[in-house]
Design goal:
It is built from ten helices and twelve strands. With 323 residues, it is an alpha/beta fold. The longest helix is centred in the last third of the chain and has 25 residues, at 231-255. The two termini are 24 Å apart. The structure holds zinc ion. Zinc ion (ZN) is lined by residues 163, 173, 175, 177, 180.
Length: 323
């Protein structure tokens, strides 16, 4: 039985999918509705309206407010200045458009920041006053939470950790520079690492048909094989974990958080991912014994975190004002 009161809708607009969720007054939430995301702002708005209607129908509650997490640079007026995977969002007034269409107050936030808010308020890091969430997707985004507040930076663009240089003169990055961390440790990088190790002769067949067919190995394929304990896929994951840990060490040395939360689709690998990452991190940090052995943890809400966090931010910031 649903308690009375409006729901807060949360959306996560990513390069591949748009996810929506309804957050109820008691902070429970319904199932996530997902639709493919096309790089077209009109179609994105149509999807938001459609998902909102579906959630309202299933919850049978008034919509009180809407929160939207988007990958990219969001300014304080809710304009998406740029988005790495959605070229349609170039100085796009997303807040204004959605509030006109749905006729409710709207809040726009960076997707990694939204996901972080879900995990520190309701999820795995709810006991932490200082936490970093690192979201491994097409790129790497992060949310920074210190002294029980989100750290947004002077322009609201803090947490762009995916573009810290890990390899001078390394792989080219869409940001225009080279050797950025996300080229080595994002969800998408897992397949790239498999390709590189194979072409260097450092792994054999990956127990799949991709090589014979001449197609590139996808991260999803490597992940499937890891779940089957495929020996070659495990080697790929070990290399990936080393790259991931290298960036995490930099962040932990600078920020000294209580928790480092890993999020994004690749965390569906669970302990298969967590164990090698913790081992790599421990090898790179001799002083690691001084820190909590549970420093690195997996997100509780998986790929729902961005939508849940956006709904929660909207509820806390907009519904309180409305009343
Ligand atoms: Zn970059």
């Amino acid at each position: 039985m649903n308690p009375k009161g409006p729901i807060s809708l949360g959306f996560d607009i990513g390069g591949t999918n748009i996810r929506g969720v309804g957050l109820r007054p008691d902070l429970s939430f319904g199932g996530v509705i997902s639709q493919p995301c096309e790089d077209d702002h009109e179609k994105i708005i149509e999807s938001l309206i459609d998902i909102a209607a579906q959630i309202q129908e299933s919850e049978r509650l008034e919509i009180g407010c809407v929160g939207i997490g988007v990958a990219g640079f969001i300014d304080r007026s809710g304009v998406v200045r740029t988005s790495p995977n959605l070229s349609t969002f170039k100085n796009f007034p997303l807040l204004e458009k959605v509030s006109c269409e749905l006729d409710v107050p709207v809040l726009i936030e960076n997707d990694a920041t939204s996901a972080t808010w879900a995990e520190v308020q309701l999820g795995v890091a709810r006991e932490s006053e200082n936490a970093i969430m690192v979201c491994l997707g097409t790129g790497i985004g992060a949310g920074l939470y210190f002294n029980s507040e989100l750290l947004r930076g002077a322009s609201g663009f803090a947490g762009e950790v995916g573009h810290m240089t890990i390899v001078p003169d390394g792989l080219p990055c869409p940001c225009g520079r080279s050797g950025c961390w996300e080229r080595y440790a994002s969800g998408s990088a897992l397949g790239d690492i498999a390709e590189k190790l194979r072409s260097d002769g450092r792994i054999g067949h990956l127990n799949g048909d991709e090589f014979e067919a001449g197609r590139p190995v996808s991260s999803e394929r490597v992940a499937q094989l890891v779940l089957k304990n495929d020996g070659e896929a495990m080697k790929v994951l070990e290399h990936f974990s080393d790259w991931l840990a290298m960036g995490l060490v930099n962040l932990v040395n600078i920020l000294d958080p209580q928790s480092v939360v890993l999020g994004g689709g690749i965390t569906q690998l669970g302990e298969h991912l967590l164990d090698p990452v913790r081992k790599s991190f421990g090898r790179l940090t001799p002083e690691h014994s001084l820190r909590s052995q549970d420093l690195i943890v997996l997100a509780e809400f998986g790929n729902k975190a961005g939508a849940i966090g956006a709904a929660l931010l909207a509820k806390q910031n907009l519904l309180a004002q409305k009343r």
